[in-house]
Design goal:
alpha/beta, 8 helices, Rossmann fold, 177 residues
Length: 177
């Protein structure tokens, strides 16, 4: 088994903030592929509407980026990914799409020590890269849980408490593995 962890949750659950604190604590982190891709594309002059105009193509691209990132990363390094490969299954299920065979294969091979699923924030915050809303986050939550639990990966729910307590809980889990 590798030394990888996943930090996941719907949009506006505090993932980026928690991940930033974990990076400050010295952990190797990987930011969300979707946001990095959106930022890269906006820098080339594309609009969010252009980038996400075809949601299925967008989700396929994000899956491919996550796959390459994980395939090229050292399994011995304790690392935290903001969203893992199985997140793509949850998105496909949300949209009612058939999960492609290549995705099923890679998802079936996914092996993380634990997954930290963040409970949603009380206030949903829109930003330049977010097209979803609070209802989407609530609907996606159980799909994310199932995407990992169905693989036999332990999912730790991270309650809505101050960021420092969320970070402490995650670090304690990592240190006790």
């Amino acid at each position: 088994m590798n030394n990888w962890y996943v930090l996941t949750g719907g949009p506006s659950t505090g993932k980026s903030t928690v991940l930033s604190r974990l990076a400050s604590a010295g952990y190797t982190i990987f930011e969300e592929a979707a946001r990095l891709y959106i930022d890269e594309q906006i820098a080339t002059g594309r609009t969010l509407s252009d980038i996400r105009g075809n949601e299925r193509e967008f989700q396929e691209k994000i899956f491919d980026i996550k796959s390459v990132t994980e395939q090229n990363h050292d399994e011995s390094v304790v690392s935290i990914f903001e969203r893992g490969i199985p997140d793509s299954v949850a998105y496909y299920q949300y949209y009612g799409w058939r999960v492609p065979e290549k995705m099923k294969k890679l998802v079936g091979e996914a092996a993380y020590r634990k997954v930290f699923l963040l409970d949603p924030l009380k206030i949903f915050t829109k930003d330049y890269a977010r097209t979803e809303d609070k209802q989407f986050t609530e609907d996606l939550d159980e799909l994310l849980y199932s995407a990992y639990a169905d693989l036999g990966i332990e999912v730790v729910r991270v309650p809505l408490v101050p960021v420092s307590q969320r970070v402490k809980l995650i670090i304690e889990h990592i240190q006790n593995d």
